[in-house]
């Protein structure tokens, strides 16, 4: 269990929780929005849960997102089942975010960002995806202005790749490589 923060000279910050959840943020208690099954991959998971948070300054705003996932391989499935929830409310304020204090960050799954989660899974090669199991997204935080489908697509790629990491990234370059397409 560990939490790691990485920074770039540009001011971008990435925080990874490996087999640990973000503090003071409860797992979602919401409805299943959509579930899809992806072809079996060849990736070998070394973790059961990962969360990633990014704050990237761009001009006068900060691109922001936080996403958490849990992998359950106790049930043999045909392929990788991916469950994405949805909440009916806007969520609660989360003060522990990497976003600047003037950004309003809310917890909870917002419908507008959900397509990015499935797109992020589709971006990954079969060598990265676990061979079977149930991958459940369970925590999300987003800002009123700086969040987008694209940032959640990047975060999805990062957390699925991090499930298969044997070693914790040691440098910012290694950590930020998790986000790349």
Q: Tell me the overall shape.
A: globular
Largest sheet: 8 strands, mixed
Structural class given helices, strands, pairing? alpha+beta
**Are there runs of 5+ residues with pLDDT below 50, and where?**
none
Average pLDDT score: 90
The whole-angstrom Rg is: 15 Å
What's the total number of strands? 8
- The helix-strand sequence is EEEEEEEHEHH
Gap between N and C termini = 26 Å
Portion in helices: 10-25%
Report the portion of residues in β strands.
25-35%
Number of helices: 3
Structure characterization notes:
With 181 residues, the protein is α+β, with helices and mostly antiparallel strands. The chain contains three helices and eight strands; from the N terminus they run E-E-E-E-E-E-E-H-E-H-H. It has helices at residues 114-123, 149-163, 172-176; strands spanning 2-7, 13-18, 31-38, 49-58, 61-72, 80-86, 105-107, 133-143. Strands 1, 2, 3, 4, 5, 6, 7 and 8 form an eight-stranded mixed beta sheet that branches. It is globular. The relative contact order is 0.26. The model has no long low-confidence stretch (mean pLDDT 90).
